[in-house]
C-alpha cells in the first residue's frame, strides 16, 4: 500500500511533538515498514504542539513530508482556558507565579474585550518559547534566570469567541489564528486588558490547516498499527493536506512533462497555487501565472496502490 499521507494524532497532554513522531516511527517499524534513513518511510510533523497542550498534530509520511512547510504556515484553531488572578513566568501551569490580582472580570466584560483582540494585532511572544535570541533559545535563557526581551510581532486572530465562563475556573475561548500566534501571550494580554492577571490552564488545538479533531486518532489507535492493524485505517491520503487549493487534472503527456520539471502552458485555471494530479495520483504542487504552470514541489509517487 502507499505510505504517502497523513496520520492526524490527537496528541495527549504530556507528550511532546518529537515524541509523537517517534511513536509513529516505532509503530511503523513494528508493523514491518522500512524506517531506514535512505529508502525508508520518512516521517515529520506539521507544527509543534507543547507537551502541556493536546489536540491536532498532523504527522506526514513519505512524500507528504514535502508539505509540512505549508502546514506550519496554515491557519490553526485552539480552545483554551484562562484562569484569572495569577500569572506565571511560563504563562501556563508549568511555571511559578510572578504576579497576582484580586480582580475577577464579569462574563460581560470578557465578551466585550474580544473585539480588541480580533483581527491584526501585535503580541510579545512568551519568554518561555523556542524563539532564538542571539543564537540561543529563549526558554533556555529564561530557565537560566536571564531577563529575556523579545520583540512584538504582528499576527492575526481571525476569530475569537467565548465558549464558557466560570468565576473560579476562568474563561474558555476558541481562537482561529495565523501562523506565529502564541495563545499563551494572547491569554496574558486579554487578562491584563481586563485589569487582572491570567494563566492558561487548558490548551487544545482543534484545527491545523484542513485537519480537525474529527479526523484525529488517539495514541491507543496509533499503537494498534504496531500490533498488526492495517495502516490504511488511519492514514489519510497526501492530498488531504491540499484541500485548501484547487487541483489540475493532467493527461499522461502533461504528467510526464511535469515530472521532468517542464512548464505547462495554455492552462485555463486562475493564477495561484494548485496541485496537479494524474488520475488520483498527486504529481506536483504548481504555481500558475498567466496560463503557465511551474513546478513548486514534485511528488515522487508512481502508483497510489504501491
Overview of this protein structure:
This protein is α+β, with helices and mostly antiparallel strands. The chain has three domains: 5-74 and 210-241, Alpha-Beta Plaits, CATH 3.30.70; 76-206, Pseudouridine synthase (2-Layer Sandwich), CATH 3.30.2350.10; 245-298, PUA domain (Archaeosine Trna-guanine Transglycosylase, Chain: A, domain 4, Roll). Helices cover 19% and strands 35% of the residues. It has seven helices and 18 strands. It has helices at residues 17-30, 68-73, 107-113, 138-143, 183-193, 219-223, 252-259, and strands at residues 5-11, 43-45, 54-61, 76-84, 86-88, 97-100, 119-123, 132-133, 136-137, 153-166, 170-177, 198-208, 211-212, 236-237, 247-249, 272-278, 281-289, 292-298. A hairpin with a 2-residue loop joins strand 17 and strand 18 (292-298). The model has no long low-confidence stretch (mean pLDDT 93).
Amino acid at each position: 500500500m502507499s505510505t504517502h499521507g497523513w496520520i492526524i494524532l490527537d496528541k495527549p497532554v504530556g507528550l511532546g511533538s518529537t515524541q509523537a513522531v517517534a511513536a509513529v516511527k516505532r509503530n511503523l517499524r513494528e508493523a514491518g515498514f522500512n524506517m531506514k534513513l535512505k529508502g525508508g518511510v520518512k516521517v515529520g510533523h506539521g507544527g509543534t504542539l507543547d507537551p502541556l497542550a493536546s489536540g491536532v498534530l498532523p504527522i506526514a509520511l513519505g512524500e507528504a513530508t514535502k508539505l509540512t512547510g505549508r502546514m506550519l504556515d496554515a491557519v490553526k484553531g485552539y480552545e483554551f482556558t484562562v484562569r484569572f488572578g495569577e500569572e506565571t513566568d511560563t504563562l501556563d501551569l508549568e511555571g511559578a507565579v510572578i504576579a497576582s490580582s484580586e480582580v475577577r472580570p464579569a462574563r460581560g466584560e470578557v465578551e466585550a474585550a474580544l473585539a480588541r483582540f480580533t483581527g491584526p494585532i501585535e503580541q510579545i511572544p512568551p519568554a518561555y518559547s523556542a524563539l532564538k535570541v542571539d543564537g540561543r533559545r529563549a526558554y533556555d535563557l529564561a530557565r537560566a534566570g536571564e531577563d529575556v526581551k523579545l520583540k512584538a510581532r504582528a499576527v492575526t486572530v481571525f476569530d475569537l469567541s467565548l465558549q464558557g465562563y466560570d468565576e473560579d475556573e476562568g474563561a474558555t475561548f476558541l481562537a482561529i489564528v495565523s501562523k506565529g500566534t502564541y495563545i499563551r501571550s494572547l491569554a496574558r494580554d486579554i487578562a491584563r486588558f481586563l485589569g487582572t492577571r491570567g494563566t492558561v490552564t487548558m490548551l487544545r488545538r482543534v484545527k491545523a490547516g484542513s485537519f480537525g479533531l474529527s479526523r484525529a486518532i488517539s495514541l491507543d489507535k496509533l499503537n494498534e498499527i504496531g500490533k498488526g492493524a492495517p495502516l490504511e485505517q488511519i492514514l489519510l491520503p497526501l492530498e488531504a493536506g491540499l484541500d485548501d487549493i484547487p487541483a489540475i487534472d493532467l493527461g499522461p503527456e502533461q504528467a510526464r512533462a511535469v515530472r521532468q520539471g517542464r512548464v505547462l502552458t495554455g492552462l485555463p485555471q486562475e493564477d495561484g497555487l494548485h496541485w496537479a494530479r494524474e488520475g488520483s495520483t498527486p504529481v506536483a504542487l504548481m504555481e500558475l501565472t498567466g496560463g503557465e504552470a511551474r513546478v513548486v514541489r514534485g511528488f515522487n509517487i508512481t502508483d497510489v496502490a504501491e
